[in-house]
Amino acid sequence: MLFANIFEAPQHSLPGNPFIPTSNEFSAYEKCLLIEQCFDWGIDSFEYVFQTPPRVVGRVLGFGLLHAPTETGQQHLVAEINDCAYSMELMAALAHVYIHGLIRVFYNPEGYTSVISETESSEGSYRETATTFEELLTELKDQPERLRDLLLERDRHRCVLSDKLDDYAVLGRRVSPSPGDQFCTTLVVPVIMQLHTTKVNGISEAARSKFTWAATTTTIIQHLGGLDIQALLGEKVLLLKLGYNNRAI
Prior knowledge:
Elements: E1 2-4, H1 24-36, H2 54-67, H3 71-83, H4 88-106, H5 124-132, H6 134-140, H7 144-154, E2 165-166, H8 167-171, E3 183-184, E4 186-188, H9 205-210, H10 217-225, H11 229-233
Parallel strand pairs: 2-3
Antiparallel strand pairs: 1-4
């Protein structure tokens, strides 16, 4: 699975507001800039979401607006940020949803993506597909670059979220771009069996009732990228039991 690195934990400040001043996008981005400038929340609270510093919340949501993979996804995020008004709790919860329900699923800065056992999935088709690819995985376990090539070929050298072409594939002449194609640097990450079942926890009931679309990683991806994950993976899913570091392959 290819995943454009649009939500890697931002270490740089947000750029100036690029949106039209009278637009909803401008208003949402201004809220992100405002929160980014806060030193702390200024709230005595044991809520888990407030463990994420304001600058990280502002940057995650702000860069999300700038790099959302689809226009529909961007408009969803615009509406969500503006609906939070200036509620610190809701803004922190919204960023928490994307950090722990999306970013950390595909990108773990502390090391390997965790290995999931078959018993943790209720999807029988995943286990069947895993068996189908068992021999291939055994053959390729010491050849991560070969595995990367196979995954790239399977996905037509494109990010499954944004449909942008992998720039290295273009430079290596593995694929010929068409007029209007956009490019990005992609990462190859394992397809995680818990996409359909893992719940996003750590937010208050008020926030949960507001962000009803954020039930699982699957629904978050569908909300942001407009993708039907079940239809996308289907029988093509390649289950990795090898725990590859998604930064290395």
